[in-house]
Design brief:
The chain has 537 residues and is an alpha/beta fold. It contains 18 helices and 23 strands. α1 (19-32) packs parallel to α3 (73-81). The protein starts with a strand and ends with a helix.
Length: 537
């Protein structure tokens, strides 16, 4: 018999309260108590996945080992839990409806009228239970995107109501995250927004078991009593979530508030063993008490929205903690980089990272930044498009291949040193058609990347259509830029280095996706180490 328990995290009053961080923090505490836990995200938008969304719309698109393009919250889940997620961990309304419509077209509903209830809700329930039915998890935490009362969230809330009824008492639990705002003019915290939010949830047939209240001010016992009375929960089930210095403080704050114990008691699971947070707290201690400081320039074209590069900035935090170093990120828009402004804009940097992206906007600025890093011996890290810009810069300025470019930016370039992958040439649809997910890479010994990984075979996650053009490989290597990592099956160049430079590495894959609190990514660790050495010069 499957004994998996299900915890649902809903949100009210306003978005961006941090459902993902609360879900990840609870999961971390349960995991450190010895339970096997996973988290999934249900996203109410109609897109099949965030793969075709502009980063300005939705922040970064996160990629799993099995090639799912997902919401950035899955990155938080992996960084906290240190276990990989998969296609089953992110579900969108688009995917739900597509699946139901496909079944209808095949005649699977035997001519019945297809409706939101039961057909859409049945599909949602099926997706929620896929992870639980594997038998791998004691607890599945499901975060429901959006806020209660949104039209698009209603089928998800209804599916939760049905599951609570079907799975029975103590097998499901609803945590409702809400806002308790402070009105400066009145000098007090206000509970009405939370009361209204809970009322709306209850009108949909779902009663919250636990209230997590986001607030800037301490929530008094009186207010907790009032919320408990009006929202139909016990006082100990009202948990405060105050603004934290860093998201990595939240598990400890939730431990102090007893969220994990309340959850386990309600699910009738043993809560005797205390969470083993020693490794986590060791990371936090180093992160909060740095002995050194480096400044790294992040060159990108979506820098106005920092969430566009969420995994990169978090990887900096993990790597910085390893070296007890604070990594200050200088956000630099690649469109603002001109040859005459470069020395001023990039002055004083200890490292330069050229970030991923798509399209030709701002790429000349990226190429100029690569040149500056290479010629001034500043540690350089190019990721995906950043690696391709490094190859273009080297081809133009060292090999003298005038007009060298990527066919993505300029179809008729005389020197297509980066070109469209062979298997991409007949593809017309944009969604889910890139080279996605984990691929192997064979590394040369006596290279900077081998020093980092200490292995000749690695697996990393990809998200791209264009690649290093092997017709130029011999020429580029002869001029001093070496391909130190290659896919063993296809011969695709995954990594380039310039050995004569202190630290110059470009990778076609996305190492930032695999960096976690307890396993900082080795390339980020070594890049920050090189930046630290640069700062001491």
């Amino acid at each position: 018999m499957n004994n998996t328990k299900y915890v649902f995290v809903t949100g009210g009053v306003t978005s961006s309260l941090g459902k993902g961080i609360i879900a990840a923090s609870l999961a971390k505490l349960l995991q450190e108590r010895g339970y096997s836990v996973t988290i999934q995200k249900l996203d109410p938008y109609i897109n099949i996945d965030p793969g075709t969304l502009n980063p300005y719309e939705h922040g970064e698109c996160y990629v799993t080992d099995d090639g799912a393009e997902t919401d950035l919250d899955l990155g938080h889940y992996e960084r906290f839990l240190n276990i990989p997620t998969s296609q089953a961990n992110n579900v969108t309304t688009g995917r739900i409806y597509q699946s139901v419509i496909d079944k209808e077209r095949k005649g699977e509903f035997l001519g019945k009228t297809v409706q939101v209830i039961p057909h859409i809700t049945d599909e949602i329930k099926h997706r929620i239970q896929i992870l639980g039915n594997t038998g791998d998890y004691d607890i599945v935490i499901t975060e429901i995107g959006g806020t209660v009362g949104d039209i698009e969230s209603l089928p998800y809330i209804e599916a939760v109501r049905q599951l609570e009824w079907e799975l029975g008492e103590h097998n499901t639990l609803v945590i409702h995250l809400t806002l308790v705002p402070y009105l400066a003019a009145a000098g007090e915290l206000k509970t009405k927004p939370t009361q209204h939010s809970v009322k709306m949830l209850m009108q949909s047939g779902v009663s919250p078991d636990i209230l997590v209240c986001r607030s800037e001010h301490e929530i008094s016992d009186d207010i907790k009593r009032k919320l408990a009375l009006f929202c139909n929960v016990k006082k100990q089930d009202v948990i405060q979530s105050l603004d934290a210095e860093t998201i990595y403080d939240v598990p400890n704050l939730m431990l102090k508030e007893g969220l994990d114990k309340v959850v386990l008691d309600k699910l009738k699971l043993p809560s005797d063993a205390l969470p083993h947070m020693e490794k986590w707290n060791n990371f936090l201690q180093k992160h909060k008490n740095p002995k050194n400081c480096v400044e790294v320039g992040l060159i990108g074209k979506y820098v106005e929205l920092h969430d566009s590069y969420k995994s990169i900035t978090e990887a900096f935090i993990h790597a910085g903690s390893t070296h007890e170093t604070k990594v200050n990120v200088r956000w630099i828009h690649s469109e603002e980089l001109q040859p005459e402004t470069i020395p001023e804009k990039l002055k004083g940097l200890n490292g330069i990272l050229v970030a991923p992206g798509f399209g030709d906007r701002g790429i000349e600025g990226k190429i100029a930044a690569v040149q500056y890093a290479r010629e001034n011996n500043i540690p350089f890290f190019g990721i995906c498009l950043g690696m391709q810009m490094a190859v273009i810069e080297y081809s133009r300025n060292v090999l003298g291949l005038a007009g060298a470019n990527s066919t993505e930016m300029k179809k008729g370039t005389p020197h297509p040193v980066i070109s469209l992958m062979e298997e991409q040439k007949d593809i017309t649809n944009k969604g889910g058609t890139m080279r996605l997910g984990a691929w192997d890479c064979e590394i040369k010994e006596n290279s900077k990347v081998f020093d980092a990984y200490n292995s000749t075979m690695i697996s990393e996650r990809h998200r791209h259509r264009y690649e290093f053009n092997n017709e130029y490989k011999e020429q580029i290597e002869a001029a001093g830029m070496i391909a130190t990592g290659v896919n063993p099956k296809t011969g695709l160049v995954e990594i380039v280095e310039v050995p004569s430079h202190p630290w110059f590495v470009g990778v076609q894959y996305h190492p930032e996706y695999k960096s976690t609190v307890l396993n900082p990514h080795p390339l980020f660790v070594n890049f920050i180490k090189a930046a630290l050495e640069q700062s001491k010069k």
